[in-house]
Amino acid sequence: MTTKTEHGRRALVVGLGISGIGTALGLKRAGWQPVLIEKAPQRRSGGYFVGLFGAGKSAAERLGIMAGLHDRTAHDGVTYDLDRFGEWRRGLGFRDIPGEPWLMLRGDVEQAAFEALPEDVEIRYSTVPTAIEQDDDGVTVTLANTADGTTGTERFDLVVGADGLRSTVRRLAFGPDSRYLRRLNYMIAAFQLPGGLGDLALHDGCTLLEPDRSLWVFPFVDHAPTILMGYRTDDVDAEFTEPPAVRVRKAFGPEPTGDMLGAALEALEGTDELLFDSVEQVHMDRWHKGRVVLVGDSAWCVTLYAGMGVSAGLAGADLLGTMLARFGDVERALTEWERRLRPYLNYYQQLGVQQTAVFTPNRKQITLRRVMMRGMAMPVTSNLLKFMRTHNKSGRMKEIDIARA
Questions:
Q1: Most exposed residue of 68, 257, 275, 386, measured as fewest CB within 10 angstroms of its CB?
Q2: Domain assignment present for 389
Q3: d(CA 181, CA 164)
Q4: Residues 335 and 193 in one domain
Q5: Are residues 304 and 170 part of one domain?
């Protein structure tokens, strides 16, 4: 049985998220015919905030996505550092990050990527792989339609797992999650607000930082804000034994919440779309085995704390297509892809661990942050921060190099 089609070699891409759609675009550009499958009955929309950095912008441009994106950063807004007792101070927010990243919703990137897909790319919903067997000539995949209960087998030249942190492809081809998932012992709850929050102006953001727990409000220039709540836990499994709103309230303690935290907790209880999950990374010695390869969170998950998930996913997808187009041999293409990409992803994973101190700091880290904030009131410090925002060339070059390969 041949896996070739009149359009070229055939690839199964599992997962209709950013990495999956980006991979399909890269494969199509390389002369492959991708087939996209998604376990959900339809494509998701909305989502929490994401940042698009240099590597992601470069990859999005080559994949044909960039024209459908725009920066939602509220540059004229103010970020406040506040507490539950009503004290407000000037603070640091997303717009203060050097390198000029774009702030947007996850759904913005998924929508732009989806619209860039050629019409002849096949998409199947309510479909999951249940078995993967490969040989020297290709991969036989058993696919199940969860809507009607039917199953069937098909042959592909390549299988790409872009199906997230708890990847089915990784489990079928590489082994159980327990081999690869590393918990950082933090929980996150992220969701969109229907409008503003309390007394906070619509284009302003805020942080409420307490030892091992935090509230972040990320404003947009043309959209309602999003919220990120995080906290440390010694028992991740216990966090899934009760509704998310119950666990988050328990994490913030029995003390009076105050106006802003109270409003955020009420908004969490009322939202229909909530990301509530443990903060975990994927660590693997290899991201490919034969003709099966993992991309995005299923391969490396840098965590939301790293801020590089979308950029890394797009860069990995773009580079995969480039390597498959450059080398006729699949094994060599995947080996080169991984060799070039891995140093950057190792760095981003380290960044994800380090930035737990930024997003969910302990008592000492909160004190240090506030000392730094007082120092920022000094002209020399303020001018240095402005310089870093506009002249962060070394950091941006490190990102861009991923895509240049």
A1: 386
A2: no
A3: 12
A4: no
A5: yes
- Of 277, 275, 314, nearest to 295 by C-alpha is 314
Domain boundary among 279, 310, 335: 279
**Interior angle at CA 64, CA 115 and CA 313, nearest 5:** 90
Q: Which domain holds residue 98?
A: 74-104+184-279
Residue-wise pLDDT tens digits, 287-335: 999 999 999 999 999 999 999 999 999 999 999 999 999 998 999 999 9
* Distance in angstroms (rounded) separating the CA atoms of residues 249 and 56: 35
Tell me which of 223-232, 309-318, 361-370 is least confident: 361-370
d(CA 73, CA 13): 32
Cβ pair 66, 124 in contact under 8 A: no
The residue count of the chain comes to 405
**∠ CA 238-357-379, rounded to 5°:** 150
What b/e readout covers 94-125, taking b as 16+ CB neighbours within 10 angstroms?
A: bbebbbebbbbbbbbbbbbbbebbeeebebeb
What global pTM score does this model have? 0.90
From CA 53, how far away is CA 49, in angstroms rounded? 13
What span, in angstroms and rounded, lies between the C-alpha atoms of 28 and 5?
13
What dihedral do alpha carbons 288, 289, 293, 296 form, nearest 10°?
A: -40
Query: Coil, strand, or helix at residue 341?
Result: helix
> Alpha-carbon distance 8 to 34, whole Å?
10
3-class DSSP assignment, residue 281: strand
d(CA 225, CA 280): 25
Q: Which of 18, 35, 41 is nearest to 125 (CA)?
A: 41
CB 288 within 8 A of CB 338: yes
